[in-house]
Amino acid sequence: MKGDPRKSLQASPEQIVYAEVLEKGMLLGLVLILASFGLYVLGIIKPYIPLNEISKYWSYSVGEYLQVAKIHQGWWWIQMLGYGDFLNFIGIAFLAGVTIICFLVIVPVLWKNDDKLYTAFAILEAVILSLAASGILGGGGH
Questions:
Q1: Cα separation of 87 and 106, whole Å?
Q2: Within a domain: residue 55?
Q3: b/e per residue, 120-137, with b = 16+ CB within 10 A?
Q4: Residue 90 covered by a domain
Q5: For residue range 50-92, what is the model confidence (pLDDT) as tens digits?
Q6: Could you list the residue range(s) of the whole structural domain that residue 102 is in?
């Protein structure tokens, strides 16, 4: 093997930036989930399905549950954020989108390093992930 093997173990600048943003995003997402769950469990924000009624829905399949509870699929949950049992979706959606943010944040680093191909790949990855999450392509984005 040619070259110094220790050099290949060094993280590149874009890897460090990506990891830092990912760590901060993960922590923020976790805080959002814990805070929204606390608001739900403590009854500070009224749930869509009252806690004393939730067990009657456990026997339903997902499709039956959505129909009986009158809940729509896709991004419809955004309209339900006033309810405690839907508020936690903010943290979940944020965590799902952190990767998109990470790719966008490394674009300037890649560009600065004159790595145009990887810059294009990072932008393309962010666009593809955003389209997939949006549901525009009909793939059932949530």
A1: 30
A2: yes
A3: eebeebbeeeeeebeeee
A4: yes
A5: 888 989 999 999 999 989 999 888 888 899 999 999 999 999 9
A6: 21-134
